[in-house]
Amino acid sequence: METLRFYFLTWNVATQPPEENFADMLCLSREKLPDFYIIGLQEVKAQPQNLLMNALFDDPWNNSFRDLLIAKDFVKIKTIRLQGLLLSIFCQRRHLLKVRDMETQYTRTGLGGIWGNKGAVSIRLAISGVSMAIVNCHLSAHDHMKEERVAEYNTILKSHTYSIKETSYVLYHDYVFWLGDLNFRLKSGAKGSLTADQIGSMVSRGEINELCQHDQLKEVMKSGDAFSELREPAIEFPPTYKFNIHSSIYDLKRRPAWTDRILYKVIPNVYENLTLDCQPMSYRSWDKYYQSDHKPVTAEFAAKVISDNHDRVVEFENIQNWFLDRENSATFELSADISLESGSDWIGIYKVNFASLEDYVFYIYVPRTSQTAGRMTVTFPDIAVAEAGVYQLLYLTHNSASVLGMSAPFLVTKADPTRSPQRLRF
Question: Collapsing DSSP states into helix, strand and coil, what is residue 106?
């Protein structure tokens, strides 16, 4: 078994543009960084006239996190957006070939399921042989809407289905992580609700445990009405909502509450002779970030995966020569468990140190064939690469669901018959 670290961020950004430096929030000054970052945002600004652009291009928030993480050699492997809901996964470049079967899903719950201002987005995937589902949600607001939040949770569970039979629902996965603005508030007691001023005073006195006894989410988890299948690390930080924007002072027109949460679940004994495990390493809010009326919340988990997993592998032969304005070929070997009958596998050309799986400069489909394994060669047209530089090939399945192979970097140059081919050393 191998242990990988997963770092989660949830933040309701209140339709604000990214204004601050998020490096501290991501703990990027650490010597040993997590293996995966998962960023879940809510209330990203989504105007109707911009919905098409949002679907085609990364928004400023994704770009802000991507620019920080690429400097640490992370690659964005998947994003899904539903209006203001945004979920992205970044992984260390060295883990790319461990990722399989990524798939996305979404559910609208706003205006009775018509509008996506509330709802959920999810990404399921396999990492080193274990399955994982990650859900980012924004549930109904206000103190009195607890039953609506419970109903929305159950709607999301029913509607998020995936194509792999063994993990066709969220809770069927080996690991589940659920984050977002769950919007649960502090419940009313027999003697009435705590007022906003009373909550503020308890926070200033550090009475976090006492306040947690009033938390609606813990109540519905205990009763089995919602989220009872999941666990939450111990809360040791103040309520994360509602603050005056650009400050760390509560707006006491609303009762402060822990609206922003990160939950998890593990099925430990699903594999013979292997025991999966997920340990929370940190769970905190970040008081120093001011631009929203919510404080961001992060959690880090150490999760066990299968270290010697070998599922569908493509190995590229080294590319010695690649010339501009000429046809060029690539040869690779497919493992026996790869089928090419669908004709939807593809090979992308990427600049070395690419930031995202979406950053290919050209691609071709792998020819459909009944062949299940062996050596293949594909030819790229003369227009595939427009400028000299260092590139790599990636072998991906339909919709970039799996990264099955990655070539060594190779140099693209203008053809010069008087010079010997150059070899790169890395």
Answer: strand
